[in-house]
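Record type: ASSEMBLY
Status: queued
Input:
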Amino acid sequence: MIKHIKPAILMLLFFTVLTGIVYPLAVTFCAQTLFPNQANGSLLGSDEQPLGSELIGQVFSRPEYFWGRPSATSPAPYNGVASSGSNQGPTNPALIDAVKARIKGLRDADSVHSDSIPVDLVTASASGLDPHISPAAAAYQISRIAKARHISPDSVSELVDRYTEARQWGILGEPRVNVLKLNLALDQRLK
Amino acid sequence: MTENGLLQIILYFVALLLLAKPLGVYMAAVYENRPVFLNRILAPLEVGLYHLSGVKPEQEMRWKEYAAALLWFNLFGGLAVFALQMLQAHLPLNPQQMSNVTVDSAFNTAVSFMTNTNWQGYGGETTMSYLTQMLGLSVQNFVSAASGMAVLVALIRGFQRTHADGIGNFWADLTRGTLYILLPLSFVLALVLVGQGVVQTFKPYQTVPLVEQVGTATEKATQTLALGPAASQIAIKQLGTNGGGFFNVNSSHPYENSTPLANFLEMLAILLIPAALCHTFGTMVGDPRQGWAILAAMTLVFASLLFVTVGSEQGGNPLLTALGVEQSVGVDQSGGNMEGKETRFGIVNSALWATATTAASNGSVNSMHDSYTPLGGLVPMWLMQLGEVIFGGVGSGLYGMLIFVLIAVFVAGLMIGRTPEYLGKKIEAFEIKMAAIVILIPAFFILGGTSLAIMVEAGKSAVANPGAHGFSEILYAFSSAAGNNGSAFAGLSANSPFYNTALGITMLFGRYGIIIPVLAIAGSLAAKKTVPTTVGTLSTHTPLFVMLLIGTVLIVGALTFVPALALGPVVEHLVMVNGK
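Status: finished
Output:
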């Protein structure tokens, strides 16, 4: 039984080199050659002046911007170095209180609105970094943004349509709106 | 369920079952040492590895030798992961200057990765240096998976051989599984994932200015984005039923699982090898129908439980409906219980992933299981408690299922009064004793561990959610550790000396407490003669046998765990529907 110690150690060494060094380096080399933008985080804007990542949401709380999913990261929402969900169970009073506060925030920001609120606007995402909201959640916010920016709801609605992504290949996933891109477009910072 | 939801699920099953046969045939060729198309590139590397390690790949090992080789190899692997974590602050490739990991957490993580569990008590982007992730965790992702597959192949040889001493050579099985199966598949998957937006870089974290600047501070508010060589690790963590994420929230992180297509492929990778190994088994024992029968049993259980999860999550949380929240599904939102789920995946892809990852002992997540509805969370928990045999881990799922096959054959033998046989081998007292150990060990650690945790303060204080859900968090943790799954009801603060130790020990027994009896069965079967099939032999590829097998798995699982489940998810469900 002792005779297996030597091959065990040597095999581990070789596999460490192969799967721990050669493999990730080979993947990195190919990835950086074939897909440099994606491999480095899908940044928007230029290399010198990045505007954020297309894939990572940012926090928005002013009325003139679309708000994303509530984020449970700490110490601040949308903390890109400490992804986290709320991990609150469905019957947890803390969850119910949080949802109530979010509903109040949305109602206060746009008091004339009486529609029921799309669920993704008041529930925390899994990562705390979700870059998307549902088209329903975007539509819900149009009147607030139009009012805050003194522009017509139709022009906001048009922009929402432009930044609504369909299901991938028409089948996979869910239709969604990229909040960061949409807000950059509202500020006319995105071509 | 919507038409599109059903379509996505059907597409998943079709892709999985279509790939099972070609990959299964290929893997059989790899393990039977027949030439495969990758030989030209990889054979010199394989031969070189044997030569440098002083291994003779054709030398047969008895089962005890095979087990010893595996245990030594896994032990040193675990020690390496442990050492890397204890020293990472002084080692290179640590751009974020992560400090050394605490002893109990390092022990837990080392055990977790060597046992193919990949339970994570820590947050990846805040704890582990790039070096630890690569040299420690990624390496174990490969070799712990290859170890599981090796044990399966050894068991299959037990059925194949007659009057034989040996069950193969562990070093050869380990090497061939890694080189010819896991590496090429991971390489291709990793590159496709990068194309979809999964990051793969050695640059330090990226800082970007926030679009919305709050306050009037002169310094701009910024966001720092965690990066790293993620795709290469994600590919193998999905394919090798490992599940240990690069980032804290695993595959719900947009840099770990960027698009619906990336999600589909990562999800497919969870069940791909476990499903294909059924066909490998059928091919190697010379009767593909035997493999298809087992795959059918797995698929049926998986599909039925899947609809419970999807239905329950799509139904949403009645407590939120009462507040005026719109949870119904429509063209412009997926609706349902969206707490802890990502918009791009919605309900169907989150629930499908949750079911697949717990059916297999993968344990990666793309949504937070802790926030699932009670019944939606019950299914993943029960799938782990069934012994991780519905697809299960790579290798470990099928060798676990073959143990249930032996039990099913034994039960049938008792009913018709014949000596039970499977694939021409008489199943006798020794095999059934070993099978009983395999079934009892996880049950003992799940129920015993949970009981212990709710009796001590260190166990109870870690709970995040009040009431029955808190109990579910603990039960889930021990089910996950014993089944070598690795997913969590992540509200539980498990990074404490108590949980790191208790779950670490559970993982060790959940892995090696199964592997050793399975290898013993392999050795015992290989030594037996093959009895000829007669008209009285129970055929094990018929729909009747598939039903018998499903019944055996479900009855054992239900009898053992229904009382515990009643205290957790069932109570919570009743509370929720009564609007409390």
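Annotation: Strands of chain B lie at 206-209, 222-225, 325-326, 421-422, 425-426.
Annotation: Chain B touches chain A through 133 residues (CB under 8 Å).
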